[in-house]
Each structure stands twice: as structure tokens, then as C-alpha cells.
Write the C-alpha cells for this entry.
Amino acid sequence: MRIAIPERAQIATVVASDPGLTYGMIAKRLGIDRDVAEAMGRRVDAMLRDGELIMKAGGKFHPGLEPKTESGVVSRHRDGFGFIAAAGGGDDLFVPPHSLEGVMHGDTVSFARKAPDQRGRQEARIIEVTQRAVSRVVGKLQRDGARWMVIPRDRNFPHPVEVSVPTARADDGSQGRGGSQAEDGTVVSAEITSYPQDGRGAKGRIDEVLGNENDSGIEIEIALRKFDLPHVFSKPAMAEAAALPELLRKSDYAGRVDLRKLPLVTIDGEDARDFDDAVYCEIKGAGNRAGGSSFRLIVAIADVSHYVIPGKPLDADARERSTSIYFPRRVIPMLPEKLSNGLCSLNPEVDRLVMVCDMTVSAEGEITDYEFYEAVMHSQARFTYTEVAAILADPAGAAAKQRKKLLAPLHALEQVYHALLRGRGERGAVDFESMEARMLFNEAGRIERIIKVVRNDAHKLIEECMLAANVCAASILEKAKHPALYRVHAGPTPAKLEKLREFLGGIGLPLSGGDDPQAKDYAKLSQLIKGRPDALLVSSVMLRSMQQAQYSPDNIGHFGLAYDRYAHFTSPIRRYPDLLVHRAIKAVLQRRKYVEADWDALGVHCSSNERRADEASREVSSWLKCMYAREHLGDEFDGAISGVAGFGIFVTLDDLLIDGMIHITELGRDYFKYDEARHVLRGERSGQTFRLGQRLRVKIVRADPDALKIDLQLIDAMPDVPLQTASALPVESGKLSKSVKPPKPAKQPKPRNRFKSAKPSGPAKPSGPVKLSKPTKPSKNAASRKPAKSQ
């Protein structure tokens, strides 16, 4: 039987209990035999080196100085070393490989600082793991002689996990893949029972068999377990949902403004299943200072908060998820289908409860007044983006003729969209160049082809309407000083800004604003690059210079959208922060407070779960693209360099719209140096360079879905032409100088000091099952005020 090497803590305890022991005496006290004496000697040497023990005359050991311990999270590098992000902030600390035994990526640890190493890096010594980040792994089951091993799919968990002989395992069936027989090559989920330590590998037990790697949908099943995504609703939540009615009850109508005769419509994608927003617009006539018309814009949002009650099971499940997750061909909803596709979905021809943002918008795109109130609506139509775009492009066409009764509000929506777009330009919001792609699948669930998605005016119309409602939501909460989660976006950090300026300087592009550029400075640059062949690439570099948007109760504004205040209000079916905003607005309308135990923690939780969902969705897409690339092994394609790193270049293939990598060792017999600021690899001897946007001819040589890697081979490189400089742009009729003209200051109205009972115009009193408040007299809970002026 193998005797374990004693832990540092065991050795330290023995020495502390009887200082002055020799090495032999310590070994005897711990019952160490010759087989592990050498290994224990190395551990004692490490403890001497780290100051945990002190050796005095005669080889006698004494306790070392008590180290000052801190807490932090570990990030492991694939080359064996790692870093600790200290909870107290500051620069990351380097952890050498020998200190990472048994420590996994993402683990929370206690550590002590050490002296800087020879390269000047602040080192840390891990004392113990206080919280494990990974409790189970998903991977392929492999037989290794008499042993069975799970090879993890997670690249941050590089250790195989030994499991007992697999057997068929019963499951409750709720996850769809239980009960399969585990065999060599099948994909399984395994719970970790012991972590790597003292040269011993990790051990675990199979808790679920997911299927074979070629099964349709297996990539989603893997992602759900790998990222620990909740995907089965609790029984209490399902029971609560089942108890809800199929249609509105009489009591649901009470105290609400009746909008059922108003031609509110939904506009979504062809494959949308839940409809959480409806819109309506009418022209209010001349009278503003520009001599044009103003608009009444109504954004009606599903009143999820009417059904999902704080502290109840449905709320607990929604809070745990925080967001719906959108995978190719499958959605993991935040709410059960009874709500997400039923009671809370604004389906056509049925009554639905809504929260309404009723706005007045000027011809210049200013929101001059707004009002929130609870209402009931009856969607007059379900439009798709494609249909609306066709109607707007050809008002006399076939699509328009089929929707004659709704043409007037649709054209009013088009006009208010252009007004809001002018307002966006006035305040200087950033409009990045981007390219979206859509996967088309065959019957086997594999990618058949990938196509570019063109955002038409209907997409942008709805986006601008939702932005307007979100701004008003933030405004009413801020004015009422009611706590809530804002959607915040900080400006670029000094380090990222410096890298961006270096890159732009290399291609002759300016970024105004000095050391503190504002959104309008980014917007000015964004306008300057429109029409350039490298616009998409420059936009991606600009985007990477920004910080990530998140949820926080501290309103610092939204940098990219150039708003001083912004909150998510328009998607409570699929985003928990939106549901919280609805609850807070209702509390303001009712002159009360909606209380949460810890808004800060809730913001961190929702932001973290949003990033987790995005990462899982990206990984599934990458896996599918690797499988797609496998069908094209050996084929050659043209493409452009979309990313440059110290280890190689990434190339986007024109025909397939997927990315692959050429490793630096495959670029030729030269030593290539990486210029991080300019995103360039340059050969020392040949002078050959590879930079963003450069055209290449490549061959797909390898596609590894497990590693999520597509490897390319360089066939030919077009001559390196530096990215187009500003001086090379064609200048026609002063367009270039005009495009960089600073925008006028933003003009958002100031909030009023009191509530106003505005009179929403429009619908006649319906003959519904219950008497409703008249549309010309909103309920007393309605609130109206002007949003604060943007700076």
C-alpha cells in the first residue's frame, strides 16, 4: 500500500508542537518510510525556501514566520504556470508550476506574497484551495488498460479523471439523455471525487452519459454541463407555472389603461417564438422649433412582473439563470414555456398585460416627454423584419397591400426612427461596423452553410425604439432615487487607449479627445472609416479598446451609446435585470419601494451569468464550425487576416465565413516578432509582414472539435499593403472634412420635479369582459416626466 507524502500543514504542525526536531525525528513522528522519504525531503526543502520552516544549528527545524495571507482567483496557463488575481486588486501575481499542483483554473485560494523572481514578476505561494471552481467535468470516456479515464473537454482542466468501470445509469429523464450505456468513446459527465495531488491524478464517478460525439445536439448538452448552466426548471417552479391561467382573468384587467383598440404590432425575426415588445407610432402634427412634426411613440413590454413574484419558485429559477441562452437551433429560456411563449408573449389576436412607455419624440429625435403605466393590449399583427423592410422600401408593393390598415403607423414608425437616428448622431453614439453570420443546418443538425446577415431598416427601427424606452426607464428611476440595476459601460482604460492610439497612428487615423476621449470622439472616427476596405477590422480594434458592459446599481452612464443614464427595460422574458427594472418602476408609480437585499451582488451575479451564457454559446458555435471545417479538409480558400497574436495569425475564410489559425512556425523559415500595438508579425531576416486585413490563400489542414481549433496552411500571401491611411481616402465635395466635424452637444430633456398625468390619446373604450380605465385618463399610477439632459 502506498503511503502518502505528508502535507505541508502536517509537517508544520509536528514542528510547531515540538520545535528543534531533526528531519529523521519528523519522519518518525509522521510514520514515514524510505519509499517516500526523498519526496518528503523535497517538500521540506520547499517549506524552507518559502519561509514556512527555519533550520538552525544541528539540522534542527523550527516554525517559520507566519505569512500574511490573502485571497484570490487562479488562472492557469496551458504551459503550466499561472497567475492569481488578488481579491484586494492590483497587478496579477505569478505562480510557478510547482506551486500549482492540485489547483484548478478558477479556484479561489489563500496565498502569501513572495519576493519578485529573476524577471521581476511578483510571485505568490498558494497555501490552500478555499473554493473549487470545478466540481465536475465533461469529456470523452477512454479505456486505458484496466482503467477508465474521462478526457475533459475543458482546456483549463488538463488532467484526465480516472473513473470506476462504467455501467448504465438510470436518470429521471428530465435532461433527455440519461440511461445510456457508457462505452469507450462516449461523452460523459463525471463528478470529481478527488483532485490531483502528490503525483496522483484526479478521480471521479460518472453521473450522466450524454451520448456519442456525432449525435445531433451533443455539443449543446456538453456546454450545458461544462458551464454548469441551469437547464431544468425546478418542480416547484413548474407547478407554479402550471397553476397560471391560459388566458387573462377578470382581476388582471383592473386598474389598467386599455390599449386593445390601438394598432400595436410586434416586429421580430422569422424564427422568433417569444414576443416581449410591441410598438405603435402616430404623427402629432407641426409645432416644434424645426417646423416639423412630433411623434407619439408607444413601446409596450410584456408585464412579466405581474406573474413572477419576488421570493416565489418562478422568481428563484429566473434569478438563478438571469438570462435566456441562445444556442444555434435551441434556446434555454429564463422562464418556463407557459410564460415565455404563452402568457407573457405578445402573440397576435389575444389580450396581454403590458408595461408601457408612452413617449413624445420631436423631429430632432429628442424625447420631450414620457409616461409609464400598466395597460392591456391586443396585438394587431405579428410582423417580421423582412416584411416590414419590404413595405417601407415599396409602399405600393404586394407586401404593403396585404397590410393596408397598418400602413399609417408603420410609416410613422419609419419617420420616428429617422428622427431618433438624428438624435443618435447629435449625442455622438458609436455606430461600429459589424458583420453578423447565420448558420443554416441540415437534417442531421450540422452546418450546411453560413450566410451573412444584413441588418435592414426594420432591425434598426426596433432597436432605436427600444433604446428610447430604456433611457426613459433609467430616467424615471434615477429621478425617483429608487435603487435598480443600470446597464453601465465605462470608457476605455488608459492602457487600452494607448494601444488603440498606437494602432491608429500606424495607419494615419486620428482619435480626438486627448487622454479622455468621449463616445463622440469614437463616433467621429467610426464615421471617418465608413466605406474603407478595412472598416470592419478597424472597428474591431476600436471595440476591443472598450470595457465590457455590465449591470450595476451605480449609474456611471453608457459610454458606447453616449447616454448619461441607461437601463434594460424591454426584455423581461429573457433578462432578469429587465424584470427588476419593471418591479422598481411599478414601485415608483405606486409611491413605494421595491427592496432587494444586495443590489451590488445582484449586479455581479447577472453580469457573470450573462458572460457565462455568451461564452457557452460561442463555444457551441465554434464546435459546429470545426465540424463544418472537417468536411473541407484539404480544400483551399481565399481569406483575410482577422487577428494577429504572438503565436500566429487568424484568417477569416471568404466562402465559409469561419476563422482558422496559421501557427507562427508555419509562416516560413524566419523569426517573427509580434508588434502588439500595430497587430503585425514581422520577419527579422526577410522583413516579411503579416498584418490585419492582409489577403491570403490558405488550405484547411486540421479541424479539432475537442480543442475548438481549425488549423490552416499558408499557400500564398498577397503583397503586404499597409492599412489604408486617412490621406489615401478619396475626398469628394469636402466629405472627408465634413465627416470629422464635431457633433453638436447632446440634447436630452431635463427631468421634471413632479409627476404628470398625461392623457394618452387614441383607443376607444372596448367592450371587454371587465370595465377598464379609459385610454384618455390613465390610471393614477402613471408617471410622466422629461428625461435628464445628456452631457
